[in-house]
Amino acid sequence: MTNYFSYNYTGAPFRLFGFTHLATLVFIAGGILLVYGANRRYGSRFSEPFRFLLAGTIAANEVIWHYWNAINGLWTVQGMLPFHLCGTMVWVSVFLLLKPSFRVFELLYYLGIGGALQALVTPNLEVFGFPHYRFFETYIAHTGIIYAALFCIFARGYRPTLKGGVRALIIGNIYLVIVYGINLILGSNYMYVMHKPETFSVLNYFGPWPYYILGIELFAAVNMLLLYLPWGLINRLKHRRTLIREPLTVIGE
Question: What whole-number distance in Å separates Cα of residue 40 and Cα of residue 147?
Answer without folding.
Answer: 15
